[in-house]
Amino acid sequence: MSSQQEEVASGIAEGAFVHPLADVEEGARIGAGTKIWRFAHVRDGSVIGEKCMLGNCTYVDAGVTIGNLVRVQNGCLIYNGVTIEDEVFLGPNMIFTNDLYPRADGRHWVIVPTRVCHGASIGANATIVCGTTIGEYAMIAAGSVVTRDVPAFALVRGNPARHVGYVCVCGAKLGDTGLPTDEPVSCVKCGRTLVLSTGDVR
Amino acid sequence: MSSQQEEVASGIAEGAFVHPLADVEEGARIGAGTKIWRFAHVRDGSVIGEKCMLGNCTYVDAGVTIGNLVRVQNGCLIYNGVTIEDEVFLGPNMIFTNDLYPRADGRHWVIVPTRVCHGASIGANATIVCGTTIGEYAMIAAGSVVTRDVPAFALVRGNPARHVGYVCVCGAKLGDTGLPTDEPVSCVKCGRTLVLSTGDVR
Amino acid sequence: MSSQQEEVASGIAEGAFVHPLADVEEGARIGAGTKIWRFAHVRDGSVIGEKCMLGNCTYVDAGVTIGNLVRVQNGCLIYNGVTIEDEVFLGPNMIFTNDLYPRADGRHWVIVPTRVCHGASIGANATIVCGTTIGEYAMIAAGSVVTRDVPAFALVRGNPARHVGYVCVCGAKLGDTGLPTDEPVSCVKCGRTLVLSTGDVR
Lengths: 202, 202, 202
Prior knowledge:
The structure is a homotrimer.
Chain A: H1 3-9, E1 17-18, E2 23-24, E3 29-30, E4 35-36, E5 41-42, E6 47-48, E7 53-54, E8 59-60, E9 65-66, E10 71-72, E11 77-78, E12 82-84, E13 89-90, E14 95-96, E15 114-116, E16 121-122, E17 127-128, E18 133-134, E19 139-140, E20 145-146, E21 154-157, E22 162-167, E23 173-176, E24 184-186, E25 193-195, E26 200-201
Parallel strand pairs in A: 1-4, 2-5, 3-6, 4-7, 5-8, 6-9, 7-10, 8-11, 9-12, 10-13, 12-15, 13-16, 14-17, 15-18, 16-19, 17-20, 19-21
Antiparallel strand pairs in A: 21-22, 22-23, 24-25, 25-26
């Protein structure tokens, strides 16, 4: 392990920025180039990668792992049990849960894990019920309540969220729901060609 | 009245904790063992019981009463007119309202009361429209919008929230909707036996 | 231009109030009589009118314009591209978006504008998808997700929000959905007479 990595392992990396009105606890690990803004709170025992952005009033609980190049918009709350892979977008005021049977008396409380895969986007004010996996590059529409796994590249919306189509790596809609096929689909917006069954992008 | 109770009546009880980044106004009453975290704001004229937890960025308005052993998660906003009984769980970013006809010009504004009864749980990002009563041990699913009264032990979900079943004291689902009967129901998770028509728990 | 207006153009007007725990950036313009509360953040390049109220943990992005007599409740987030006209009510934790294809990699990001017209009200925890216009005195029910334009005086609710009726200037419900007609409608609550097709109020 290089001396720089050891430094990251034990606190805030050189080149990270923490606003004076944020509170980052001593045992949190913050990667280089990451910016943490006003009234944010990052707890001891969380790991945040490089070049991330955490907006105002965000919360990162103990036990949370966040990859690189992740954008966490204002008011977003990330609880213990949640893993965020690289290049994920978490919209403002969106929220995770980590308990299927919440009660004030937390004695029998069991943390249920949730994963957001590479490149996925979760819209503003969305709610992600724990125990779900959000697939690569999936798009959760604003205000959705996600109660089931979301396939890679899927567009879901509503309460409960329903699968209504597929999106491109760039976020634009590709086509309606149906089983992902081996037929390549072209994105009108960015020109990429995607094979939904394999996730291959050309 | 004992001297300890008098102390509670006039401010923050001995044994309560207020984080230095929270703002508790002078006339608020905070019970012993209660913890109030970062960027929380508790207003003059509110009453909070013992052994409660108020998370980051929570707001307790003037005129609010909160019982004992209540958990108020991050970003939860509780407005004047709301009463929270003992052992209630208020999920992160859930919100109450207190005005059926909100307008910027608040001159003709009428506060409509809301009550959350003993042991109830309100999920993350849920919205409780004022004038409703949430029954004992009821469970409001994450992201729900509650526009009507919720019976004791009921599980409701959706926008608007619909009654889809019943839950145990421990939070686990007991059975589907229907009139509560005198037949005892057993909880698979915790083993309790419940009579839904009377609320008796064995 | 009067000397008072020049003063407003360059910062915080005399007679405005900024709580010591709020952060108003230097280039923001704040009108006289406006109050900005705890943990709020107002960015450089935003313009806020007179006699507004911005609650705790609110966020006003660069490029946002807010009129006079606007109430912005706690936790409300207003992003670049949003214009708020006079006498608008923005409920607690309600949120705007400004990007139809949000991705963590924001390189190809296009701001899509949203407008909230004179006197409209947006309920608690509502989500307004960008590119929409909320008509004069429209009422967005709490927890709604607005994905299309909302006509003047319309009441909408649900996810996605659907047009279910009309409301008066005072906020009370007037009647069910249908094309606005030339027939005057009387408000049972405040006594006003309204012609919905023209917006004339008597």
